DNA sequence: GCGCAAATGATACC
DNA sequence: ACCGGTATCATTTGCGC
């Protein structure tokens, strides 16, 4: 029979000592299917120089071992001409019966005197299969094979909850066809925040066609979508039942790897309920790493929080990655918050006045928002999976470095390349201990208010450098012959020069392919904007930008600090070159950082600037391009807090439409309180629009007087700082750490990653001197502990308002003292 | 106990 | 451990006196 289907999830299991691949997917007519296929596991051996390959192969082919109850044998060995890091090598392809045997056999063959190195022992078997059989996750395939009856499948010891099972004889990629998975979003609420404590109170489920809360907390006047069960046992069982009946392709949660699923597992274990949600009846498994994750066979379990924090967060404005913040930004829905810690406290005290209906609806809201967020982000997950050719499950949890690596691994075949090994633990330690190399150049601005500004920037600077100068570990060579020569590459004080062969190597070629594909996507986007094309564009862009960082990442297979440092060296060279040329052309460079340059037009026109831009581009390498970022009416650059020199990475520009581009200022920093951010934003706007500081001075004085008169709502005085590690790990106990400790004592859920909120209140010390000496952490309070007349107005004026505005006024010659004078006094002075 | 520089820590830029 | 270096700034820590 032939079946057209879309692969969604992959796994492999042993059948009679052999590993078989199972692909779970959807058929063209929407049925859930499982395709069973084979793949021969293998790895590579590189021989030492002068080794008799035939003899060596013979010797390797005889390897046979007993290990962990398995009889591991080499099934056959082939001698192949391959490439490793671009160089020709002879290699033995060593086939085994079961991927598990690789780990056993590689140790035996590694010890042979003929063996120089072993390769590709750490390639995941699913990845191996996808490469060998040219399968493309989430795209349409035709499978030829035999349909298996339920009975035949049972003989393999499986009970598969799918509609069709096919044993493949061949599998063929057909085309990229857009696919929307059937999903079930879920969210649990529990009586405690810590996994292992308390019990599950309710579980919500949501998709387009379902919105449901299951709870064992009974109450009257419940809406239809609330289903009551007897107890927690019935709750978990009902959850399982719904998941099994609904048959989603993806089970979606928000922070579900970190909370919902581990919690569910602990409670299920406690009640001796099997959490066998897998399509083969298997239980959910947890991978314990630094970042725990969970896997359900056949059912792609997606933790949207992970995907967002890994892949989407760089473009988010949200100050936290909480479901509420992210949903507001991405889908424009405001989450209705309730006080969860209050409910927890009430439950602990046995207080019965909990509004269960409201709590249930809150719970449902989370599941619904998760479902909506998924709908929004699915194109991003799917397009990324298609670009790198890895299964959805892996992609949804991968960091950019992993994605870059997946992309490379899946494309080595066309270069006949053997994959580099993953670094050993020792290697990682060594790499992490290495000194830093010099990165980008940042131009020191002169503090002032500027008019008529243009900003040019390099389009994808680092990727274009990698491509232009063929920067890769495979092209690095020791002589200048037929090579690109780097500018001075700096490692601290040491300076070096590197040479990269001019024959294009696989990483720059693959990177160029990403960029060329993106150009095509951009063209299509011009014709018609679709979420899929936008997601593809985003994926291609971010992946190509991540390649430079990948070279410098200690966990990378293709780690090369020489490459990373060469890239930044070229970057500095071209940025400086363009700065010089802009100045020479009669413009005035104000500022530059990494790949962008801001300069004043002076007496020149915008058109002249654009003509000059075209001229600059004619002198750049083909794959490099300088673009106009924008023209600005005005811009302000300030001094550093200490000294008179201009602060880098801190400026505000006024766009012609009246909007502002603000970088680095307190306004854009989440660890400053709202009032200081608001005041700074306001005066930056006033100054940039008016070209003077006249009206903003009065405005600031007004705010200072309001603070002094205790008129500012405590809410605007909250300082938010993230806890980057566990409370006990801190050497310096800052205000947020002190507050976190207090919160822990109160039984509130606090740990690494929590955003700690506090307000600085009046201290206990009396007398001006003693007051000033009291540590800020001693005066820090939880926001709801501080009444309107209790905040420390001096602190907010001196530490939050003045620092945020002082250096802006300094541009106009207005000293700090003048800000502190009252409005009236100033008027008297004027008379 | 005081005043200071160094250390620690968070966040942003690109 | 889950992309890099560059940069600013607040607050605490700890040293010398």
Explained architecture:
The chain is α+β, with helices and mostly antiparallel strands. 39% of the residues lie in helices and 24% in strands. The protein has 26 helices and 32 strands. The strands form 8 sheets. Strands 14-13-12-11-15-18 form a 6-stranded mixed β-sheet, sandwiched between helices. Helix 12 crosses helix 16. It binds a DNA duplex (14 and 17 nucleotides) through residues 289-291, 310, 398-402, 404, 428, 432, 436-442, 457, 461-462, 545-556, 564, 568, 593-596, 640-642, 647-650, 663-664, 666, 668-671, 721-722, 724, 730-737, 775-777, 799, 803.
How is this fold's topology laid out?
Layout: E1 2-15, E2 18-27, E3 32-37, E4 42-47, H1 53-61, E5 64-67, E6 70-84, E7 87-96, H2 99-110, E8 115-119, H3 125-132, E9 140-147, H4 150-155, E10 164-175, E11 183-190, E12 200-206, E13 211-215, E14 226-228, H5 232-246, E15 250-253, H6 256-270, E16 285-287, E17 293-295, E18 300-303, H7 304-312, H8 323-331, H9 340-349, H10 356-388, H11 392-397, H12 400-409, H13 425-433, E19 448-458, H14 461-468, E20 476-477, E21 483-485, E22 489-491, E23 494-496, E24 499-501, H15 506-527, H16 531-552, H17 561-584, E25 588-593, E26 596-600, H18 606-618, E27 626-639, E28 646-655, E29 660-663, H19 674-690, H20 694-708, E30 719-722, H21 735-745, E31 755-760, H22 768-773, H23 776-779, E32 780-781, H24 793-810, H25 816-820, H26 823-830
Helix pairs in contact: 8-10, 10-16, 12-16, 14-15, 14-17, 15-16, 16-17, 19-20, 19-24, 20-24
The protein binds a DNA duplex (14 and 17 nucleotides) through α12, α16, β28 and α21.
């Amino acid at each position: 029979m032939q079946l057209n289907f879309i692969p969604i999830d992959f796994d492999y299991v042993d059948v009679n000592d052999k590993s078989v691949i199972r692909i779970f997917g959807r058929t063209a007519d929407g049925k859930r299917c499982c395709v069973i296929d084979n793949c021969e596991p293998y790895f590579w051996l590189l021989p030492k120089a002068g080794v008799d390959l035939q003899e060596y192969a013979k010797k390797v082919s005889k390897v046979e071992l007993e290990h962990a109850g398995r009889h591991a044998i080499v099934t056959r060995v082939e001698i192949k001409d391959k490439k490793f890091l671009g160089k020709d090598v002879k290699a033995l392809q060593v086939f085994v019966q079961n991927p598990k045997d690789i780990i056993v056999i590689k140790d035996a063959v590694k010890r042979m005197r003929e063996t120089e190195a072993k390769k590709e022992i750490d390639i995941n078997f699913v990845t191996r299969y996808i490469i060998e059989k040219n399968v493309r996750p989430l795209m349409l395939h035709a499978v030829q094979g035999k349909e298996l009856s339920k009975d035949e499948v049972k003989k393999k010891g499986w009970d598969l909850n799918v509609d069709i099972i096919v044993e493949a004889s061949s599998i063929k990629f057909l085309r990229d066809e857009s696919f929307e998975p059937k999903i079930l979003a879920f969210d649990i609420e529990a009586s405690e925040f810590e996994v292992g404590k308390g019990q599950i109170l309710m579980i919500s489920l949501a998709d387009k066609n379902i919105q449901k809360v299951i709870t064992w907390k009974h109450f009257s006047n419940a809406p239809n979508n609330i289903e009551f069960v007897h107890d927690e046992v019935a709750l978990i069982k009902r959850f399982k039942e719904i998941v099994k009946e609904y048959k989603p392709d993806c089970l979606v949660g928000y922070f579900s790897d970190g909370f919902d699923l581990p919690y569910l597992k602990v409670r299920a274990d406690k009640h001796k309920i099997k959490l066998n949600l897998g399509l083969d009846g298997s239980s959910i498994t947890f991978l314990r790493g630094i970042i725990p994750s969970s896997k359900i066979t056949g059912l792609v379990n997606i933790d949207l929080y992970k995907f967002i924090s890994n892949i989407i967060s760089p473009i988010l404005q949200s100050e936290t990655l909480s479901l509420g913040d992210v949903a507001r930004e991405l889908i424009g829905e405001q989450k209705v918050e309730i006080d969860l810690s209050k409910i927890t406290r009430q439950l602990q005290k046995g207080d019965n006045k909990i509004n269960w209906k409201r709590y249930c609806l809150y719970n449902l809201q989370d599941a619904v928002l998760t479902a909506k967020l998924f709908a929004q982000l699915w194109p991003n997950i799917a397009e990324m999976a298609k670009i790198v050719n890895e299964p959805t499950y892996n992609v949804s949890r991968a960091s950019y470095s992993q994605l870059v690596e997946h992309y490379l691994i899946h494309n080595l075949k066309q270069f006949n390349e053997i994959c580099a090994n993953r670094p050993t633990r020792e290697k990682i330690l060594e790499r992490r201990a290495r000194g830093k190399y010099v990165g980008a150049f940042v131009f020191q601005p002169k503090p002032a208010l500027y008019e008529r500004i243009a900003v040019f920037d390099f389009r994808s600077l680092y990727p274009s450098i990698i491509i232009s100068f063929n920067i890769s570990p495979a092209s690095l060579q020791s002589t200048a012959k037929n090579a690109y020569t780097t500018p001075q590459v700096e490692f601290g004080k040491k300076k070096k020069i590197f040479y990269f062969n001019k024959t294009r190597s696989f990483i720059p070629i693959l990177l160029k392919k990403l960029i060329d594909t993106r150009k095509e996507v951009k063209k299509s986007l011009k014709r018609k904007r679709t979420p899929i094309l936008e997601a593809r564009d985003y994926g291609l862009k971010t992946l190509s930008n991540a390649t430079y960082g990948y070279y410098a990442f200690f966990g990378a297979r293709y780690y090369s600090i020489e490459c990373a440092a060469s890239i930044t060296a070229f970057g500095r060279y071209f940025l400086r070159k363009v700065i010089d040329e802009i100045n020479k052309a009669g413009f005035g460079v104000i500022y530059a950082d990494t790949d962008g340059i801001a300069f004043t037009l002076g007496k020149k026109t915008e058109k002249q600037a654009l003509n000059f831009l075209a001229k600059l581009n004619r002198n750049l390498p083909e794959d490099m391009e300088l673009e106009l970022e924008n023209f600005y009416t005005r811009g302000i650059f300030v001094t550093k807090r200490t000294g008179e020199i201009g602060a880098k990475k801190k400026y505000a520009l006024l766009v012609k439409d009246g909007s502002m581009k603000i970088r680095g200022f307190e306004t854009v920093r989440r660890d400053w309180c709202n009032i200081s951010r608001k005041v700074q934003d306001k005066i930056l706007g006033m100054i940039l629009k008016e070209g003077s500081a006249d009206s903003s001075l009065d405005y600031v004085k007004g705010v200072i007087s309001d603070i002094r008169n205790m008129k500012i709502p405590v809410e605007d005085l909250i300082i938010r700082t993230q806890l980057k590690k566990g409370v006990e790990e801190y050497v310096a106990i800052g205000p947020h750490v002190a507050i976190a400790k207090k919160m822990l004592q109160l039984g509130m859920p606090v740990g690494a990653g929590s955003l700690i909120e506090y307000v600085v209140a009046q201290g206990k010390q009396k007398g001006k001197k003693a007051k000033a000496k009291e540590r800020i952490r001693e005066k820090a309070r939880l926001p709801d502990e501080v009444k309107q007349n209790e905040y420390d107005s001096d602190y907010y004026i001196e530490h939050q308002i003045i620092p945020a505005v002082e250096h802006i006024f300094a541009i106009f010659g207005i000293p700090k003292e003048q800000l502190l004078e009252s409005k009236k006094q100033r008027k008297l002075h004027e008379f």
